[in-house]
């Protein structure tokens, strides 16, 4: 809700009610609040790529995967519907009731990501891949108590700042989805709500890139952290290991 509504305000306000920084801040604040809201209950699994990575690594039972994915899908889909209702009148005024994916009054990008006109499919894939690599590296570092982990209670804020940093540096090419759960459900909503199937064909059928690239980027981020940081960490007392394992699972 924070992220999508910030995009809506910037686009529909024609630049008079915020800029790109507003969008980055909105998503950063949303992630921080999401981690605070769900961290103690489910470990704050807000990202399908990270959830799948935890299952592959054995940190999360596979039987829990459907519940997490359904929860992520419903949350993101409902957020898109909420922002649509919140800004329906502004959307109608901005587009004269013609909801389009491309063109001078395109509004589909309020809800999901689309590649910049100059970017190739491969370039867009690499952007999403690298953005997710940095996301995973950052999350693992924040929660790495064997190295130089964040102070207790600051993890949610630092995760939000991490997302803000990714948006500030890697948002130009693709809008930095870095999360299948953030991109696909709102895209499904827009297909239903009036934008049609163009949301799946635009950008050379772009929709599958924000689904697959973050999964591969998540796995690569874990591998890089393991090879260059975790293998070189000093051992800690058993009690510290137990505590660290809990925190890493919660990430």
From TrEMBL:
<keyword id="KW-0813">Transport</keyword>
<protein>
    <submittedName>
        <fullName>AQP7 protein</fullName>
    </submittedName>
</protein>
<keyword id="KW-0812">Transmembrane</keyword>
<comment type="similarity">
    <text>Belongs to the MIP/aquaporin (TC 1.A.8) family.</text>
</comment>
<feature type="transmembrane region" description="Helical">
    <location>
        <begin position="205"/>
        <end position="224"/>
    </location>
</feature>
<dbReference type="InterPro" id="IPR023271">
    <property type="entry name" value="Aquaporin-like"/>
</dbReference>
<keyword id="KW-0472">Membrane</keyword>
<feature type="transmembrane region" description="Helical">
    <location>
        <begin position="67"/>
        <end position="88"/>
    </location>
</feature>
<dbReference type="InterPro" id="IPR000425">
    <property type="entry name" value="MIP"/>
</dbReference>
<keyword id="KW-1133">Transmembrane helix</keyword>
<dbReference type="Pfam" id="PF00230">
    <property type="entry name" value="MIP"/>
</dbReference>
<dbReference type="GO" id="GO:0015254">
    <property type="term" value="F:glycerol channel activity"/>
</dbReference>
<dbReference type="InterPro" id="IPR050363">
    <property type="entry name" value="MIP/Aquaporin"/>
</dbReference>
<dbReference type="GO" id="GO:0015204">
    <property type="term" value="F:urea transmembrane transporter activity"/>
</dbReference>
<feature type="transmembrane region" description="Helical">
    <location>
        <begin position="154"/>
        <end position="178"/>
    </location>
</feature>
<dbReference type="GO" id="GO:0016323">
    <property type="term" value="C:basolateral plasma membrane"/>
</dbReference>
<feature type="transmembrane region" description="Helical">
    <location>
        <begin position="118"/>
        <end position="142"/>
    </location>
</feature>
<dbReference type="GO" id="GO:0015250">
    <property type="term" value="F:water channel activity"/>
</dbReference>
């Amino acid at each position: 809700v924070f992220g999508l509504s910030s995009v809506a305000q910037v686009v529909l306000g024609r630049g008079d009610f915020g800029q790109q920084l507003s969008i980055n801040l909105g998503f950063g604040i949303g992630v921080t609040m999401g981690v605070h809201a769900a961290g103690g209950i489910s470990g704050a699994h807000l990202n399908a790529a990270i959830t799948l990575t935890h299952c592959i690594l054995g940190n999360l039972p596979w039987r829990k995967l459907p519940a997490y994915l359904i929860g992520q899908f419903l949350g993101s889909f409902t957020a898109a519907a909420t922002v649509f209702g919140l800004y329906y009148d502004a959307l109608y005024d901005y587009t004269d009731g013609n909801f389009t994916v491309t063109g001078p009054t395109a509004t589909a990008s309020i809800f999901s990501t689309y590649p910049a006109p100059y970017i190739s499919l491969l370039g867009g894939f690499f952007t999403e891949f690298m953005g997710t690599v940095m996301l995973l590296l950052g999350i693992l570092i924040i929660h790495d108590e064997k190295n130089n982990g964040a102070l207790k209670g600051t993890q949610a804020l630092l995760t939000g700042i991490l997302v803000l940093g990714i948006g500030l540096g890697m948002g130009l090419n693709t809008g930095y989805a870095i999360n299948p759960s953030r991109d696909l459900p709102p895209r499904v909503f827009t297909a239903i709500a009036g934008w049609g199937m163009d949301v799946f064909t635009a950008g050379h059928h772009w929709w599958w890139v924000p689904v697959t690239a973050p999964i591969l980027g998540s796995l690569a981020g874990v591998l890089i952290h393991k090879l260059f940081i975790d293998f070189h960490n000093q051992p800690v007392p058993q009690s510290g290991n137990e505590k660290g394992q809990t925190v890493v699972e919660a990430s």
